[in-house]
Design a protein that fits this description.
2 copies of one chain form a homodimer. Chain A is of the alpha/beta class and about 350 residues long. Chain A has 12 helices and 13 strands. In chain A, strands 7, 8, 9, 10, 11, 12 and 13 form a 7-stranded mixed sheet that branches. In chain A, strand 11 (about 275-285) and strand 12 form a beta hairpin. Chain A is globular.
Chain lengths: ~350, ~350
């Protein structure tokens, strides 16, 4: 039987395990008989119904020939990067929700998977439950992608929605997001735009076939957006949203990429994306304009993406990584000076 | 070299051929070296740059071991059904835009493909460029689908948009749609809801794993929608849209399926879907609510879907049909009497 290992038993890991057992019939109908054999974490979970699967020694997974797929749901770079490389080198597919790792080391890990006949899949890294990774990778094969615009961070979108609809201040809205569990105690990565920058890098790398790094992205957070800015936006028939944009002119190698608050006009599709929802808009040569909308985070939506990748990896005979990301230098990025006022999406 | 045959050189066929050569580098990077070897049509095209590929004898395709994939873009049942069966029996994958054939004979053709180690793919049959077929088939593996709501016919959505925004009568809006090439000379299949009924059957069959037939769908067209209805909708903060709905209660085998004009409230995601655009909203157990939006028809958007399937079929070693559709009887359908007034989407 081809079995599964879960790396990390936090919120996402718990969601993946619970959702796996809730949907086991469905998953086995798709992917054949399977089970979760190990859950790796540094902690013990004596109250968990899955406590017997919990292990602390990574080498058990690495050296178990029954393990076909590992779901890396730990986050961060260490030890996730080391574990991922060791698994891929053994021919064990890795699926992940770890946007930091994919954004920083995607090219290397995809190539490593391909070289070892297994897969490195990351549907859960960007857009939560929205199947945008598979769409860019597989479902737009015969398209040149011109542009991607996305609301990629649910926390900031929730805060901006509350500031608009309930006239909250930034700090009150942030506090509410923390109370509801949407924002971390240290919300810097969300608020500063760093989380969105990682995600637009993943989408841009997939769309353009070059590995675009987060530190190259012009990134402006939402912490300086005021109630007055919101009122001004409303007075001109717009909303303020934190939008990530990546574009490439046809016949040019240069890429424009940014994360910053935008004025989004009310007739623009992204203007109706509220609360913790995410959306990704894609402009492509044949398909034209497409939009994908759904829950950008949360235990079950993320589990949906993780388990979709697990099913894909279990049924694949070889690597599912269709496209490698070429290495490239920062001079591929079009540099722009900060402009007066917010950019507008009409 | 694994080569491609195009069956039918009308609007969709021409779009597929032109888009193939425009994107040939991209397609070959994905799917390996390939080419279009034959274009089957009853007509000659002496002015076409592809005239040398045009043939009239189907058996050339069927008996050519170089052909790995055929794109059936003829529409209708005859001879499309016969051709499709003969190709699949030879192990040649078939991709299609033919919603009528998929809605009526999908279960049989999917099983036939599976039995012969090839694929029957139909991304282009529903939702134009929106990759909704692959999403329901592959990207929501670990979800129970509860409900699908869609605006699946661009022609009727265009007509209703013009009636709303420019206060046109139904017949003036229909005439404009015909003048712009959005509606056929005989627009019955669009206006009556029959086209939407076929498409919601395809989506429901994929989502619920049972082959739902178009004649079981309660289908009401848009020809009785008046300017007064539009004005009434506007007065209560809603729009009138032709919406297809399919749903299944958890733990029930019964399916509700309908195509009819709905009052769609202005805060509902489907209310912003205008003109010839389509959208599909999916409610699923883990992913929650997802929406997919894009061009529902047209030469290039349809070509995008056709060529995505061609790439998938060219790279597959076996059948890509993950799920068969079980045969079922009409008593699976929940019957409802027509109600007073339009159903509401809030």
């Amino acid at each position: 039987m081809r079995k599964i290992a879960i790396l990390g038993f936090g919120t996402v890991g718990t969601g993946a395990v619970e959702s796996f057992y809730y949907h086991k019939d469905l998953i086995e109908k798709r992917a054949g008989e399977t089970d979760i054999k190990y859950i790796l974490d540094i902690r013990d979970f004596p109250e968990s119904p899955y406590k017997d699967k919990v292990i602390h020694d990574f080498s058990l997974i690495e050296n178990d020939p029954e393990i076909a797929v590992a779901a890396e749901l730990m986050g961060g770079t260490n030890p996730a990067l080391d574990f991922t490389k060791r698994l891929l080198k053994k021919g064990i597919s890795v699926v992940t929700s770890n946007k930091e790792l994919v954004a920083r080391h995607g090219a290397e890990l995809i190539s490593l998977a391909k070289a070892n006949g297994c897969s490195y899949l990351f549907e859960a890294s960007t857009g939560g439950a929205i199947p945008i990774i598979r769409t860019l990778g597989d479902s737009l094969s015969a398209n040149v992608i011109y542009k991607i615009q996305g609301i990629l961070n649910g926390t900031t979108n929730f805060i901006l929605t509350k500031m608009l609809e309930e006239q909250m201040t930034f700090s009150d809205a942030l506090k509410l997001a923390q109370d509801l569990g949407y924002a971390e105690k240290d919300p810097t990565d969300d608020i500063s735009g760093a989380d969105s920058a990682r995600k637009i890098c993943i989408l841009a790398s997939l769309a353009f076939g070059k590995h675009i790094k987060p530190e190259w992205v012009r990134t402006v957070g939402i912490d300086r957006v005021t109630k007055e800015d919101m009122a001004y936006a409303e007075s001109i028939g717009a909303k303020i949203k934190l939008v990530a944009v990546a574009s490439k002119e046809p016949d040019s190698e240069k890429i424009f990429i940014t994360v910053e608050p935008h004025l989004v006009c009310n007739n623009h599709q992204l203007s109706v994306v509220s609360d913790v929802f995410n959306a990704v808009m894609v402009d492509a040569s044949s398909a034209g304009r497409l939009m994908f909308y759904g829950r950008g985070a949360g235990k079950l939506p993320t589990a949906s993406a993780v388990l979709t990748d697990v099913c894909a990896a279990l049924t694949a005979d070889g690597s599912l990584n269709n496209d490698v990301w070429e290495d490239c230098e920062e001079d591929i990025i079009i540099k722009t000076d900060g402009q007066e006022g917010l950019p507008i999406l009409e």
